[in-house]
Specification:
It comes from Clostridium frigoris. One of its GO terms (molecular function) is ATP binding. By secondary structure, this protein is an alpha/beta fold. Helix content is 39%, strand content 21%. It contains eleven helices and ten strands. Strands 6-7-8-3-9-10 form a six-stranded mixed β-sheet, sandwiched between helices. The chain has a four-stranded antiparallel β-sheet with strand order 2-1-4-5, with helices on one face. Helix 4 (115-128) crosses helix 5. The radius of gyration is 21 Å and the shape is globular.
């Protein structure tokens, strides 16, 4: 039986200017999964995330964490945000201390931990994101990609059960995007539930266990990467693109150049293995 660590029930949210951002969102996030939210700008992804950890309070409906409805008093919200951390799209909006060590230690110090435990957590968080050697460096001297990793360490130091990333690879080159994705995988292997929003359909397809598609503040569809990106009607209506790997595979299969029983590839390596597999190619 699946264990849902985070849920929303009939979640709706309207901003003060009257903008209806979310309408009856019902999602169930399984513990330990890698989940992507996809959709165009304005579809509601960031608003959902801000409701996840209580930064925003639903206009209607509720957020459920580990089976309990989120309460909006100070004590409950502090506990919630310790367990559900958000890494924002722009690290400049999250970082405010002079040095890397000061920045990452801030959250742990607010937990009233001993100095020894604070140091242990900060060192561990910085090592997890590959920034330990920069711990004494001034934050404003870091590159954009390094600031992204420090922002992740900010959250890791709290020992969260869920980390939510809003457009984590935006403005990053391919090298630094791969580094960030590896951090996601390492965190997930430690049992942390990783949730992200992304416009990168290649990332969502190759990386995710489960995908939720938002359109105009509502859930258009949810399912496995294959289910989502094999749905041509959904892709058209939600202004998405089919991942290149899947598109190539479907073209080869429809033309009879690979066996129709071949497993659908999720990444380049799997696609190459299908193409190079003895007996799979028919006059390719």
């Amino acid at each position: 039986m699946s264990e849902y660590i985070l849920e929303t029930r009939n979640l709706s949210y309207k901003y003060q200017d009257g903008t209806k951002a979310l309408n009856n969102i019902n999602v169930k996030i399984e513990k330990g999964k890698k989940v992507s939210f996809v959709g165009v700008n304005g579809s509601g992804k960031s608003t959902v995330f801000l409701n996840f950890n209580g930064i925003l309070k639903p206009t209607k409906g509720s957020v459920i964490y580990k089976g309990n409805e989120v309460k909006y008093n100070q004590k409950s919200l502090l506990e919630l945000r310790k367990n559900i951390g958000i890494v924002f799209q722009d690290p400049e909006n999250q970082l405010f201390s002079a040095s890397v060590y000061q920045e990452v230690s801030f959250g742990a110090m607010n937990l009233k931990l001993s100095e020894t435990e604070v140091r242990r957590r900060v060192d561990a968080a910085l090592m997890d994101v590959g920034m330990y050697e920069y711990k004494d460096k001034a934050v404003h001297f870091l590159s954009y990609g390094q600031k992204k990793r420090v922002a992740i360490a900010d959250i890791l130091v709290m020992n969260p059960e869920i980390i939510v990333f809003d457009e984590p690879t935006s403005s990053l080159d391919p090298k630094h995007s791969k580094q960030i994705v590896k951090i996601f995988d390492d965190l997930n292997q430690k049992g942390i539930t990783v949730i992200l929003s992304t416009h990168d359909v290649e990332l969502a397809y190759a990386w995710s266990d489960y995908i939720i598609v938002l359109k105009d503040g509502e859930i258009a569809r949810e399912g496995t990467p294959q289910e989502i990106f094999s749905d041509d009607k959904l892709i058209h209506e939600c202004y998405l693109e089919k991942p290149f790997i899947l598109e190539v595979f479907e073209k080869l299969r429809s033309s009879g150049k690979i066996d129709s029983s071949s497993a659908v590839p999720r990444n380049k390596q799997e696609l190459f293995e299908i193409i190079n597999s003895k007996g799979e190619i028919n006059n390719c």
